[in-house]
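[09:14] KT: can someone run the structure on this one? pasting the chain below
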Amino acid sequence: MGWDWLSASAFSSGLAATSGLNLSPERVRRFTFSFPARQVTEAAPAGPPPHHILLVEDSAADVGLVREALNEHKIDCVLTVLTDGELAIKFMDDVDSGKEFCPDLILLDLNLPRKPGREVLKRIKMTAKCESVPIVVLTSSDNQRDKDEVAAFKPTRYTRKPSTLDEFVQLGAMFKEILAGAK
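[09:31] RB: done, structure tokens below
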């Protein structure tokens, strides 16, 4: 099943184009989710979506499921997808240097190529500009040792990836709730 039918479109910002990130389609992708229900008024003019979500995930299937969850729950956002831990650490370096903005929500897998999710989590927590950003560890690991190691970095949530499509899509409600609380 392809995910191209979603209302998300590939997105590349000028800011990202000036960053040190390698914007190859396989490793870094940006999607914009915007819904007609969003009211444009003088107080809330048209412009970029109100949220930026960073997803660090190497599984294309799980990226598609997260996109579906965002779409299903009508979350206006720019979703930046990084496919390995090394890129995520570089992204945080770019946040520190002002080449990238700190996201409003970070969704992080633990089992990543090039650098493990724990190292990415540690690097995120060292980024002063992102010290209060909510982080959801979204992983297939149910290992107590993983939970204990991650707990030291105080993520907002540690969530095991659901095994059904419906359960995965329902994660969008959690993302929406966390974003509402972060404003």
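[09:33] KT: thanks! The helical segments are 14-18, 60-72, 85-97, 117-125, 144-151, 165-182.
[09:34] RB: yep, looked fine to me
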